What does this fold into?
Amino acid sequence: MTTAPPSLETDLMAMKQAAQTAIAAATTLDQLEQLRISYLGKKGQLSKVLGGMGKLSAAERPRIGALANQVKGLIQDQLEQSKIALEAAQIEAQLAAETLDVTMPGIFQPQGRIHPINSIIDRIVDIFVGLGYTVASGPEIETDYYNFEALNFLPDHPARDMQDTLYLPNGDLMRTHTSNVQIRYMQNHQPPLRTVAIGRCYRRDTVDATHAAVFHQIEFFAVDTDITFTDLRGTIKVFLEALYGDIPVRFRPSYFPFTEPSAEVDVQWQGKWLEILGCGMIDPNVLKAVGYDPEVYSGFAAGLGVERLAMVQHQIDDIRRLYNSDLRFLRQF
It folds into this structure.
């Protein structure tokens, strides 16, 4: 009786042992895949060993074939078991890396605070939006027409002097008030309208406890038929009561080129009267400049100094404190 060449059976057992050792040592799924291809692929080691079966007798081939299938099955089972184990280990490692330990102390993140100027601007806008006003904006670099001429400033008005206005080399200027938004908005919208505008303004003011060269102003204006000074006064009273509550307020006659009649409004602050806004009925010449018929329409306008409103709101004694970036001051808000 013929038997298989000892080398063929020996090769199968040696291959099995080598495969089992390599698979047990694999630490990644990629390594397992390479081992599968190396041992069980079309050009793998098992195929090479089985290539010698042609030299076997017909009686011996079934035994060696069965042994080869047994070796192949053992290798496949070990590959599958190792794959399952590695996948489970990979999931556990990922879960461990992504787990949040709620018992660990948190990292302190200091909370930011809203600057008192931004805070009061937000509050003022909320009040006027609640009164039905639309929010508008305009450029800080302005032409003489929108900053002065359309607002009824005469050519020799003192506000045009370089001591008050910051002019640029090309003849434009840094706006001295947000009234430029009033002109631009009215040019593009027809009455009735109720609008509030917020922005920075620039003047050659001497900086002191109540003045700044760069400041924020809020302009509100309304145009419709039959608007009177009583409507203006009532709007200001409602606004100040919403902002401050019950606070002493007084109106004083004043003059502005773009309003007639005009008034200044003061509130009690640090035991004295502090001017916070100027106001009045829109001058007919201003209405004509934007194409409104002053015989049909009338309106009022007012400009409020935001920094002064913040000073009253928070009982601040010096406007310069708002810009000194002193954390001891800012942490109070």
Q: What stands out?
A: The first helix runs from residue 6 to 25. The longest strand covers residues 214-224. The chain has a mean pLDDT of 86.
